[in-house]
Amino acid sequence: MEEKNKDRPKIYERNPDTGVIRWRYVGESPDDYGWPHYGNILTEEEGE
Fold this sequence. Notes:
17% of the residues lie in helices and 25% in strands. It is an alpha+beta fold. The chain has one domain (2-47). A three-stranded antiparallel beta sheet has the order 1-2-3, with no helix packed on it.
């Protein structure tokens, strides 16, 4: 399944209060990944 998701476009969002960047796939509900639930956090390694 990871191979299938590799080509799916992502949406990146930054929390201006904390500076944390999270991502979700296009088509996923932002309510499922809303603050404070965070969802998928972008690590420094992924950001490079």
